[in-house]
């Protein structure tokens, strides 16, 4: 698999999704987010991941427009938050997101969490938006295998993406294999483990390859075929996170990283969505 800053993954419907993007969770609305997005686009990123919860969709939209890069060349993902879920309320939430983004379509729209009793109706709204041409691709976030099986038992359009917490301490191997079999693209949030990069093996590999621990983590995910969206608001770090295409982890080192799994979450448990 060729990997470069412009590498893409082909989704089930043929849409091409960049393999590396910028996440803007907890990036402040205004200059902080705008500067981060501007730095990412200048560094060659072509995917930005936001959500209604993040309250920075307006800044993302402004930065994309200010970049001068044609809209169709920037892959924008946003998500419907838990208190917006349900069929009609999701349609309304999506239109609010588009207005904040200042665009007439989204590239990818996701159900942010599997809210029990709501996520099927929410996803049905995504199917409607997709069929109306308002969004290029649809999917889910934080869905476990049983959530995906339940959803696929009734949906008309299979989810194209599943965005989940994934990193060497939470490798998600069964979920990754399930998604591969089903043709669902796995995407990782919190790929840098909340900045907890002091894992001895990761530090050892960083020295061995002449890279930073963050670059080792990003490269590991890319070689697994996972789309990844490391978050930073610092231009130098954003550029550094993209400097991962001039080396390749060996199979042995990939396996060693896999062996770090502790099933350790830094985020919430999808089976206990009470927010």
From TrEMBL:
Q: Which residues form the NADP-dependent oxidoreductase domain?
A: 19-262
Listed binding positions for substrate are: 112
UniProt keyword annotation of Cytoplasm present: no
From which residue to which does any coiled coil extend? none
Instruction: Give the matching Gene3D superfamilies.
Output: NADP-dependent oxidoreductase domain
This protein's UniProt keywords? NADP, Oxidoreductase
One GO MF term, please? oxidoreductase activity, acting on the CH-OH group of donors, NAD or NADP as acceptor
One Pfam family hit = Aldo_ket_red
Q: Where is this site: Lowers pKa of active site Tyr?
A: 79
Report whether Oxidoreductase shows up as a keyword of the record.
Answer: yes
Assigned protein family: Belongs to the aldo/keto reductase family.
Name of the protein described by the UniProt record = Aldo/keto reductase
Report the source organism: Cohnella xylanilytica
